[in-house]
Amino acid sequence: MKIGECTIMKRTKRYLLRSYKGMTLIELMATAVIIGIIASMAVPRFSYAFERLRFRKKNRDIVSTVKLARSMAITNKSQYGVYINGNDKQIILFKDIVNPASFTYDSGDSLIKTETLPAIFNYLGSDFTNNTIVFKPNGSANVGGSITTMADVSETVAIGTHSILASTGRIQSQSSYY
């Protein structure tokens, strides 16, 4: 190899290395199109996941309200209850002061908290008398049973079941999707 050829080879290598340092506009556009296609396929899955999360959150709110009623009954040594109004889709936490012996929600009972279920929710009912569960000062419930909710969540039906044990007042929840 001659001295002049070596210099030309070095210059050529440097030129080749420099030419591959950037991206062309076509490569950038192709990448943007691929990312757009993948994102458009993922968006429906995200909305499905958000609806399921919303259903689970509202069911946790129901459980939280029932647990709060039990906790307040134990703490304040008085009867507290939860009334489920299926027509208005409301869950009402109250202090049972008007007629404690009846274990029902009466118009004069002290309201503590009212929650409204979202429009997608359907209250399927409960096993409790008059849709009311009342907790005694020892934490037990006046009656055992379950609360069932349903929602139409992105082409599936979601059902939430919350079972309450009368002797201890403990609640156990389960969500199913069909």
Description:
The protein has helices at 3-19, 25-76; strands at residues 80-85, 90-95, 110-116, 121-126, 132-135, 145-153, 156-164, 171-177. With 178 residues, it is α+β, with helices and mostly antiparallel strands. It has one domain: minor pseudopilin epsh fold. The chain has a four-stranded antiparallel beta sheet, with helices on one face. A four-stranded antiparallel beta sheet has the order 4-6-7-8, covered by helices on one side. A hairpin with a 4-residue loop joins strand 1 and strand 2. It is elongated and about 80 Å long. The N and C termini lie far apart (77 Å). 23% of the residues are buried.
Question: Largest beta sheet, briefly?
Answer: 4 strands, antiparallel
CATH topology: minor pseudopilin epsh fold
Task: For the record, give the distance between the C-alpha atoms at the N and C termini, rounded to a whole number.
Answer: 77 Å
Widest sheet, order of strands: 3-2-1-5
- The percent range for strand residues is 25-35%
| Poorly predicted spans | none
Task: Determine and state the CATH class.
Answer: Alpha Beta
Report the oligomer. single chain
What sort of overall outline do the alpha carbons produce when their principal axes are compared? elongated
Structural class from helices and strands? alpha+beta
Output the radius of gyration.
Answer: 31 Å
Could you say how many structural domains there are in total? 1
- The CATH homologous superfamily is named minor pseudopilin epsh domain
Using the 3D structure, state the CATH architecture.
3-Layer(bab) Sandwich
Mean pLDDT over the full residue set? 82
The H/E string reads: HHEEEEEEEE
Figure out the total of helices.
2
Please estimate the helix content: 25-40%
How many E-type strands? 8
